[in-house]
Amino acid sequence: xxxxxxxxxxxxxxxxxxxxxxxxxxxxxxxxxxxxxxxxxxxxxxxxxxxxxxxxxxxxxxxxxxxxxxxxxxxxxxxxxxxxxxxxxxxxxxxxxxxxxxxxxxxxxxxxxxxxxxxxxxxxxxxxxxxxxxxxxxxxxxxxxxxxxxxxxxxxxxxxxxxxxxxxxxxxxxxxxxxxxxxxxxxxxxxxxxxxxxxxxxxxxxxxxxxxxxxxxxxxxxxxxxxxxxxxxxxxxxxxxxxxxxxxxxxxxxxxxxxxxxxxxxxxxxxxxxxxxxxxxxxxxxxxxxxxxxxxxxxxxxxxxxxxxxxxxxxxxxxxxxxxxxxxxxxxxxxxxxxxxxxxxxxxxxxxxxxxxxxxxxxxxxxxxxxxxxxxxxxxxxxxxxxxxxxxxxxxxxxxxxxx
Length: 404
What we know:
Number of domains: 2
Largest sheet: 7 strands, antiparallel
Strand content: 15-25%
Number of helices: 12
Structural class: alpha+beta
Mean pLDDT: 91
Order of helices and strands: EHHHHHEEEEEEEEEHHHEHEEHHEEEH
Number of strands: 16
């Protein structure tokens, strides 16, 4: 079982400068490899360059420019080239599936914030000595950086990554560990229905309120972004100190919203995993749910368009993104695996329109957002609770149908 750990680093001033240079040089390597692939395809008879060919050139690159590339770990540079190769693999996969391709783009220094070390001990070393109160991570070209290790790392460390978030630096570890002992059985099963008015409703009639972290911070974000928009677009080396402070303020506010959203998702998922042995949830296609409204051309007036509810759809998309369903479900599955719980995703169609008493399914069964009133048997309940109950039943049916 692979588990990830994220710890805050406390570098010195000199180490902070070295970490920034490491990101800059890896970003330059990424962009140079991307440019080589573009040029080979455009000008050399549509020739495709693979990861193996670019990795073989690393020795020459490091020897030619030892100050920029020779001082960093060889394996971390290979990981950067492998990241580009994965971006192209995803690009070709989207083409085959008919999705929007999204050709790999050049990365600016501010958008390249992670350096990966594929193996502990190769260019990096996680040093957590039990009798030493100070934990450090050794990085080639940077030195021994202090780490605020707020919890122990269980298992053997496999990979190490360095990540920049605003002005803070983090080290992310992946550790291989044995499957932990499952939590004691509770004998409880539950279905959950994700929503916007309420973050989720369960089949027992309980609700978890939606904190709406993004909406609560909207005014401060709007003010910070307006201040940032007053600065003209200039090159990075021409930006003023006020411009940099405006950028950092926007990034700080977004970081606070993201951390609050993660905290809420972790606590909600942990409560579900501790209290229930089996959890069923809707298999939501969130990417499709947040697509923009398609334009409606006016057949009577060429060049004009009919109202398509784009403003309302934009507000709905923003609320879905603010709820963070995808992050929550990812965390829920990870915690359930660690605790030995079972989580199953079911088809969400008609879960809020099907009567749990008589099974009648109709659009008219849900006259309002919150109210469920069956037109066949007159059963009444909260619509989200009905949806969660139907999700649970579908999950139990699917569990019984799965081969042993």
